[in-house]
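Intended use. Records like the one below are meant for learning the mapping from a protein sequence to its folded structure. Do not use them to infer anything beyond what is encoded.
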Amino acid sequence: MAIVKTERHPDMPPPVSQTGVIGWMRENLFSTPLNIVLTVVSIYIAYSALSGLISYAFINANFAGETRDDCTGTGACWVFIKARFGQNMYGFYPVEDRWRVDVGYILGAIGLFMVLSDWFKNKKWAAIYMFAIYPIVCYFLFYGGTFGLTQVETSEWGGLFLTLVLASVSIFVALPLGIVLALGRRSEMPVVRLLCVGFIELIRGVPLITVLFMASVMLPLFLPEGVNFDKLVRALVGMSLFSAAYMAEVVRGGLQAIPKGQMEAANSLGLGYWKAMGLIILPQALKISIPSIVNTFIGLFKDTTLVLIIGLLDLLSVVKAGTTDKEWLGMATEGYVFVAAVFWVFCFGMSRYSIWLENKLHTGHKR
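Structure written out for the chain above:
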């Protein structure tokens, strides 16, 4: 009796050589003789460059100890970073009050999580907390002088703490101000357009060092007698205005990429200028401009190192000052590598988040 099988035999899995890591390597690294040669040469160059770096930074490095005498190896002396870690992170902020900075970090992390994460749905309250409540709380928390907190002058702020304050405040001010300037530059009112164009071109025509110098030295000359701003506030004003000018051009580029028909469609629905901008035009323009906006943020974060010229000690300045200590002379390499690693972590984090945000907001316009 013959047996006829009516069920379809399950498909065989693809060969291992065509899928997974092996398949990816065959397709991208060893697909042609030329690619094979280039891959081998690249591996050799990477091995030659990284082997010495890994040996210096990890294998032969010193991690344990408190003084320079504990650095007995031929590699990096990370004891220098360990010994001055508190000053690198907080500057000259009093040790007994550093918990206030840590609380500010925690509250800021909670706010960023609420604003940036999809898990928190009510973005309205998250934005109110992050942009209205949190700055006020941080002012009283960091500066003190009220609620039983000891007053800590901004001259004692420094290190990574000061870098984050400069970058975060400048970023939060520059984005909305840049949007306003971009809209003003495209305005049909000649006076508004002329003022915005003049401000943008004036700021973009000078380096940030000049802006900081003007904000620190020249700004008090234009203020009424008896009125004076803290040095940190002056730096924040200069950096915010400088970044806003560049942000305005980034946003203007996004606005110009929106077809004119979008505004015409909004007008046909009875929407006024501000509603059309807020509900239709700006969301699309900002989505298109995400890479450039984040690129401006990254540049601003790195430009915080320039505040040294007006006497503020950010992370780089504090580490550099530590290398001039007679006890740690010759530790400049370790210090600069540490600073580079910290800046890379923050900048890479912003870059990866921008990529995630682009993919999230992707609505079919990507080519």
